[in-house]
């Protein structure tokens, strides 16, 4: 492993995100970053480390512990022509700002008859896997994907972490970016920007012909792992990374199912009322006659996320669960 | 810390009757309370009467089922909207609540655009998508129209923050009720605004009730100005029935804010003469209490003062009343005839781009 690190220059997901922030702050004076501990501390997850020194406390702005006030202030600043990037430590805490996100950010454009777009980016972490127990581990991005008027992104790769922020800032509407907490330390060689990074399309992370594994965010690596195992058995799995949870890229899902005729949807949220439920319903609505087997879902167990490692692992979708679901569909 | 002042260009108050045209065009004209800051009593009187007569007409229209939804009347509180707005310039920003007809009219949104909105018509100031509780006018920096109690406060801090970051001398004024004082959002915003010295004017309309809950039954400490002062901002309690007192206090506060001393808080002691909303049977207040407050009706108070000093006679009152009646008649007429938004436009303005297609 040490050898590996010496061989090629690697970038972490954290660094990719930081580079995206740096570029945004450099490119446009209207951009500023605001949130709890984004300045002196360097960001709760170290994403904004060093940016305070480079851009100063006006533009890398530490806020009080007041999710509602500083998210709402981001909305107000966006209304007045700024381009704020608001960081919320985790999706759990975003619930204290849910009123501002839903009742203001997502609705002002409509309620004002088109007069008041809210060009705001809100970033936050999501997901489990680090034994942080129930109040730091849930995956609630699906709730946000329920809301019309906002865009919801889930960058799962280094390239998406690096290159989704700029188009998110260019969007005239509120964009929520969900960064899975287990991704920050993932490292690899950052590929040069390609035309494939956009905010409208899902990505085929691995082409296949026998079954579609449809997922996003922190579950992508597990789905890819499952595809490897399935390949060893001679089953060719296509892995679809949704990337944008709202609006969903229906066409990509439909096209994949038309190729493979089988689908497993993997989502770290609870199964009931999840994004996986939405994707499954859409497959049932749009691709029913393409299906050779019922759609399978692999989600988290319906339990507040436990602390104990074995229990947490048991609650989360794992590669083996995905493989088993694929077998059920294929056999 | 100093805040750079930008040069302001003040538009002349345009004629209230802009005739036909697009909603956007209409929004650009309309009555203001005289050139901002002149403090002329007749302007104040006319502005207050416009709000009162407009809302009285709303009651009739509501009873006739012409307008629907939640309608919250401002009658009794007109001195606040007029006194405060008189001091603000067109470049300043205003954030309001669901009880905002008065704020909107005093800000210069035409009775025609507001009435059309009550009718849910395309020509309404929110294109018929907002209704009574969600009046907006971007061209006048009027940012609603928020039906979540205290929901506008953080937003106002952000507007003020943007102005500050760009060195603009604008003030953001946020209206809210005494009920909002109990919400965390008020306290989060007060702390943030004072900490960052934001150019924010917090205008608390203390009408003594949050729906049916009296102030002493919803606040442990009912001296609101004192509590606001604990955040380290200048705070005053003001007679909210006296438009001149409101105007003076606002002027002092706005001067302080523009000089860079951070947010100011005004507690305006006022009273709503009507029920909380059109649905409210108003069982929680004594008749005597209401009558007592009516004896300090802000409109009569100013009229009496003007009559005493010989500035006002019956003819002048009749002229003002006639102008307002014409204006509101015209607003109702045009609203009745205005087109309704086609249903095919249902999904417009959900996002700025093309409508999201959900298969
Ligand atoms: C967050 C929230 N809680 C409750 C309500 C229901 N509600 C609407 S108005 C109101 C009373 C608010 O009183 P106050 O802030 O004093 O304003 P006023 O109506 O007196 O102008 C309540 C409880 C609401 N709209 N929003």
TrEMBL record, chain A:
<keyword id="KW-0786">Thiamine pyrophosphate</keyword>
<feature type="domain" description="Transketolase-like pyrimidine-binding">
    <location>
        <begin position="11"/>
        <end position="186"/>
    </location>
</feature>
<dbReference type="InterPro" id="IPR005475">
    <property type="entry name" value="Transketolase-like_Pyr-bd"/>
</dbReference>
<dbReference type="Pfam" id="PF02779">
    <property type="entry name" value="Transket_pyr"/>
</dbReference>
<dbReference type="InterPro" id="IPR009014">
    <property type="entry name" value="Transketo_C/PFOR_II"/>
</dbReference>
<dbReference type="Pfam" id="PF02780">
    <property type="entry name" value="Transketolase_C"/>
</dbReference>
<protein>
    <submittedName>
        <fullName>Alpha-ketoacid dehydrogenase subunit beta</fullName>
    </submittedName>
</protein>
<keyword id="KW-0560">Oxidoreductase</keyword>
<dbReference type="InterPro" id="IPR029061">
    <property type="entry name" value="THDP-binding"/>
</dbReference>
<dbReference type="InterPro" id="IPR033248">
    <property type="entry name" value="Transketolase_C"/>
</dbReference>
TrEMBL record, chain B:
<feature type="region of interest" description="Disordered">
    <location>
        <begin position="1"/>
        <end position="42"/>
    </location>
</feature>
<dbReference type="InterPro" id="IPR050642">
    <property type="entry name" value="PDH_E1_Alpha_Subunit"/>
</dbReference>
<keyword id="KW-0786">Thiamine pyrophosphate</keyword>
<keyword id="KW-0560">Oxidoreductase</keyword>
<dbReference type="InterPro" id="IPR029061">
    <property type="entry name" value="THDP-binding"/>
</dbReference>
<comment type="function">
    <text>The pyruvate dehydrogenase complex catalyzes the overall conversion of pyruvate to acetyl-CoA and CO(2).</text>
</comment>
<feature type="domain" description="Dehydrogenase E1 component">
    <location>
        <begin position="47"/>
        <end position="343"/>
    </location>
</feature>
<dbReference type="InterPro" id="IPR001017">
    <property type="entry name" value="DH_E1"/>
</dbReference>
<protein>
    <recommendedName>
        <fullName>Pyruvate dehydrogenase E1 component subunit alpha</fullName>
        <ecNumber>1.2.4.1</ecNumber>
    </recommendedName>
</protein>
<keyword id="KW-0670">Pyruvate</keyword>
<comment type="subunit">
    <text>Heterodimer of an alpha and a beta chain.</text>
</comment>
<dbReference type="Pfam" id="PF00676">
    <property type="entry name" value="E1_dh"/>
</dbReference>
<dbReference type="InterPro" id="IPR017597">
    <property type="entry name" value="Pyrv_DH_E1_asu_subgrp-y"/>
</dbReference>
């Amino acid at each position: 492993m040490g050898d590996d690190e010496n061989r090629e220059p690697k970038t972490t997901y954290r660094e990719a995100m930081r580079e995206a922030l740096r570029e945004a702050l450099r490119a446009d004076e209207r951009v500023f970053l605001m949130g709890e501990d984004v300045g002196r501390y360097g960001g709760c997850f170290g994403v904004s480390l060093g940016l305070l020194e480079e851009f100063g406390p006006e533009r890398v702005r530490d806020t009080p512990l007041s999710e509602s006030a500083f998210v709402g202030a981001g909305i107000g600043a966006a209304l007045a022509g700024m381009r704020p990037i608001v960081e919320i430590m985790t999706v759990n805490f975003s619930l204290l700002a849910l009123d501002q996100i839903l009742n203001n950010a997502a609705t002002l454009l409509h309620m004002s008859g088109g007069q008041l777009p809210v060009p705001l980016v809100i970033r936050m972490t999501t997901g489990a896997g680090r034994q942080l127990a129930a109040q730091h581990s849930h995956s609630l991005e699906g709730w946000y994907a329920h809301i019309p008027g906002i865009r919801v992104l889930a960058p799962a790769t280094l390239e998406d972490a690096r290159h989704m922020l700029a188009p998110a800032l260019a969007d005239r509407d509120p964009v929520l970016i969900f960064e899975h907490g287990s991704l920050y330390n993932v490292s690899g060689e950052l590929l040069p920007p390609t035309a494939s990074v956009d905010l409208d399309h899902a990505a085929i992370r691995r082409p296949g012909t026998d079954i579609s594994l449809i997922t996003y965010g922190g579950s992508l690596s597990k789905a890819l792992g499952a595809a490897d195992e399935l390949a060893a058995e001679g089953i060719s799995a296509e892995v679809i990374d949704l990337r944008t949870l709202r609006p969903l890229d229906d066409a990509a899902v439909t096209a994949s199912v038309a190729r493979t005729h089988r689908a497993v949807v993997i989502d770290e949220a609870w199964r009931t009322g999840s994004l996986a439920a939405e994707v499954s319903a859409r497959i049932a609505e749009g691709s029913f006659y393409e299906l050779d087997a019922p759609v399978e879902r692999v989600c988290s167990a319906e339990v507040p996320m436990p602390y104990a490692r074995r229990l947490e692992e048991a609650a989360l979708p794992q590669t083996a669960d995905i493989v088993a679901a694929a077998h059920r569909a294929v056999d | 810390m100093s805040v750079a002042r930008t040069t302001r260009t003040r538009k002349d108050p345009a004629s209230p009757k802009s005739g036909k045209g697009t909603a956007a065009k209409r929004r650009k004209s309309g009555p203001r309370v005289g050139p901002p800051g002149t403090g002329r009593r007749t302007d104040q009187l006319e502005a207050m009467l416009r709000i009162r007569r407009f809302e009285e007409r709303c009651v009739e229209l509501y009873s006739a089922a012409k307008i629907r939804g939640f309608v919250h009347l401002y009658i009794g509180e007109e001195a606040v909207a007029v006194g405060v707005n008189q001091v603000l310039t067109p470049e300043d920003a205003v954030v309001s609540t669901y009880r905002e007809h008065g704020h909107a009219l005093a800000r210069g949104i035409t009775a025609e655009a507001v009435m059309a909105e009550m009718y849910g018509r395309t020509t309404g100031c929110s294109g018929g998508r907002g209704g009574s509780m969600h009046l907006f006018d971007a061209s006048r920096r009027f940012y609603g129209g928020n039906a979540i109690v205290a929901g506008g406060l953080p937003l106002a801090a952000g507007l003020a923050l943007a102005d500050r970051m760009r060195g603009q001398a604008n003030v953001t004024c946020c209206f809210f009720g005494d009920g909002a004082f109990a919400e965390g959002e008020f306290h989060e915003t007060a702390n943030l605004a004072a900490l960052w010295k934001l150019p924010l004017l917090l205008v608390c309309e203390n009408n003594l009730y949050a729906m049916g809950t009296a102030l002493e039954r919803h606040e442990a400490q009912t001296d609101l100005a004192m509590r606001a002062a604990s955040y380290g901002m200048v705070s005053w309690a003001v007679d909210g029935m006296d438009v001149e007192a409101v105007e003076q206090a606002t002027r002092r506060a706005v001067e302080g804010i523009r000089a860079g001393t951070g947010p100011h808080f005004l507690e305006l002691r006022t009273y709503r003469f009507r029920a909380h909303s059109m649905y409210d049977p108003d069982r929680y207040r004594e008749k005597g209490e209401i009558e007592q407050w009516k004896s300090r009706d802000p409109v009569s108070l100013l009229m009496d003062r003007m009559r005493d000093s010989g500035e006002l006679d019956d003819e002048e009152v009749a002229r003002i009343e006639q102008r307002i009646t014409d204006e509101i008649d015209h607003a109702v007429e045009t609203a009745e005839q205005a087109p309704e938004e086609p249903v095919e436009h249902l999904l417009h303005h959900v996002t700025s781009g093309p409508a999201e297609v959900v298969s």
